[in-house]
Every structure is written in structure tokens, then in C-alpha cells.
Amino acid sequence: MNKLPSHLYLDEHDIPYEPKSFSPDTERGAANFAHVIDFSERQAVKTLIFQVDTGARNIKMADPDVIKETTGYLIGSIPAFGWQPSEFRSFLEASLIDEPILGTGAGQWGEEIMMTPKNLIKASNVIVVNLTDREKSVSVE
């Protein structure tokens, strides 16, 4: 297997992961990827990129051309780490830290990176937030 930039990033930062390949002919989408590798769709991390205008209330999904220009990747297999400019803030849904393993795009459809939530947090420098149950507090070790 040829190593992609996402693999090299993890190697350089000594962060454990397991590369996982599936047919690039698989129809795009987290549910389809999860099905072909017998994985829970819930554990498939989706990298969503938003644009912020001049204020916090002016948030919208980034346009595909902005995503490509910013990340270097096409929508559908954007890694959760390794490409973010310093001004970016990344968030992870708090309930995902309870999963034994998570999958994130490796930067090319047909390639996925499997890793523990702790290692994903380390790799992506995310802020763990409760997006689904705001009554719960967050505790990350």
C-alpha cells in the first residue's frame, strides 16, 4: 500500500492507526463504507467543514471548491487531521469518545484510517463537545 499524506502525518507524530482499504467503486457515503467493511456507521467520523463570515452567527457549510482549496481533498474522504491551518477549530461529538474504534477518511476514497478516539483527538487537536446532549458534561482523559 502506498502511504497517503494522512498516513505520513500519523507516522511523523507517532500516533497508532490501522489503514483499511475497500473498493473505490463503493458508492460514496459513510453508510456505504461502513457496510462494506462491516463497521457501525456511527463510528465513521464525518469531516464537515463550515465557513464563518464576519461573525459567529454567519456560519454555513463550505462550498466544494473552498473545501478543495482549504484541505487539498475532495469531499468524501477528508481526514480529520493533518491539513488544518492554525486558525481552524475542530470539534468532535462527545459521545464518540465512548466508541472502541473510529474510522476517518484517509484522503482518498477507498482508503480509511481506523483509530481509537484518544488517538483521533491527539491527531486532530479537536475540542470535544456535546452536540447531541448538551445536558451532559464532557470529561476526556
Question: What does this 3D model show about the protein?
Answer:
This protein has one domain: YbaK/aminoacyl-tRNA synthetase-associated domain (YbaK protein, Alpha-Beta Complex). It is 22% helix and 18% strand. It is built from 4 helices and 7 strands, in the order H-E-H-E-E-H-E-E-E-H-E. A 3-stranded antiparallel sheet has the order 1-6-5. A two-stranded antiparallel ribbon has the order 2-3. The protein has a two-stranded parallel sheet with strand order 4-7. Strand 2 and strand 3 (59-61) form a beta hairpin. The longest helix has 8 residues, at 5-12. The termini are far apart.
Low-confidence stretches: none
Number of domains: 1
CATH level-four homologous superfamily name: YbaK/aminoacyl-tRNA synthetase-associated domain
SSE pattern = HEHEEHEEEHE
Cα end-to-end separation: 33 Å
- Give me the count of strands: 7
- Beta-strand portion reads 15-25%
State the helix count: 4
Quick check: average pLDDT? Answer: 88
Q: Which word captures the global form? A: globular
Radius of gyration: 15 Å
CATH topology: YbaK protein
Fraction of residues in H or I helices: 10-25%
The largest pleated sheet is described as:
3 strands, antiparallel
CATH architecture: Alpha-Beta Complex
Structural class: alpha+beta
Spatial order of strands in the largest sheet: 1-6-5
**CATH first level:** Alpha Beta
Architecture blueprint of SSEs:
Layout: H1 5-12, E1 18-21, H2 30-36, E2 50-52, E3 59-61, H3 64-71, E4 91-93, E5 102-105, E6 111-115, H4 117-124, E7 127-129
Parallel strand pairs: 4-7
Antiparallel strand pairs: 1-6, 2-3, 5-6
